[in-house]
Amino acid sequence: MVRSHGLSAGNVVTVFWSCLNASGLLQTVIGHFIEWNKGKASAERLLPVFSLDEEEIFVNSIGLYPGQISEKLNQLGWNSPSTTSFSTYAESVKDLANYYGHIRFTDVIFSYPSRSELVLTGLNMELESQQTTFVLGRSGSGKSTIASLLTKQYKWQAGEITIDGHGVDLLSKNWIEKNVYVCEQMPKLFDIPLIENIKIGSLYPEDVSEEDIKVALADSCADFVWDLP
Asked: Residue limits of the ABC transporter domain (predicted)?
């Protein structure tokens, strides 16, 4: 059409870019339309929840009416936190000379002191000795809480946690720290040399040498750490 003088070159370029812009805008609109439909579908699932009163929502979330909680705790033999603490067991704390590491959670109920909602609502779980067990769940489902309770960082409100049949609440804090280890994904390091950090977590810190650390870093493909200032 340019050759036949039907359109100028400028008009052709203008039409071409207009089509590109229109196509880009259409793609944007389609993306928003998809998200709008997702939101609409989610809203339809939430509408029945809005019609529930607070008590019904509570029941659906943990399976207990507010009035049933004290009854449930009594069934599990739980006493009020105001009268039960680790100091209550001061005379009966003990260490295990021989152990296999069989861990059991029985009807454990727990909520953090700063929160009202329950994190664990009657947890029952068994961790066999000399086996690797994976605990899977979404963020906030209580995976880290399980480790915190096992290491006596918090006192659970009801239920029982045992190691080889011995209640964790009856085991001394010193024994727990020496025999139960938690390896976090993002370990915390003190502002001291790396070798000193490793010695802190070692059962035999006096035997840790720089050569041991070099080998450990090389095995984990992190030997570059040794060259850091």
From this structure: 120-192
Residue 169 per-residue DSSP state: G
Q: Does residue 63 come out as left (phi exceeding 0), alpha (psi in the -120 to 50 range) or beta?
A: left
What does the chain come to in residues?
229
The token pair at 20 is 């590109």
CA 19 to chain centre: 50
Tell whether 91 and 170 lie within a shared domain: yes
How confident is the model over 29-62, as pLDDT tens digits? 888 888 888 888 877 777 766 665 544 444 444 4
Say if residues 114 and 99 touch (Cβ distance below 8 Å): no
Query: Over the chain (229 residues), what is each successive 10-residue block's mean pLDDT?
Result: 65 80 85 84 72 49 47 53 39 71 90 81 88 83 87 87 88 84 76 80 79 72 62
* Domain presence at residue 221: yes
Please indicate, yes or no, if residue 142 is contained in any of the structural domains: yes
Q: With respect to residue 185, please indicate whether it lies within any of the assigned structural domains.
A: no
State the residue range of the domain holding 214.
194-227
Burial 164-203 (b: 16+ CB within 10 A, else e): eeeebbebeeebbeeebeeeeeeeeeeeeeeeebebeeee
How many structural domains comprise the chain? 2
Q: Based on the domain organization, do 103 and 164 belong to the same domain? A: yes
174-184 residue pLDDT tens: 888 888 887 77
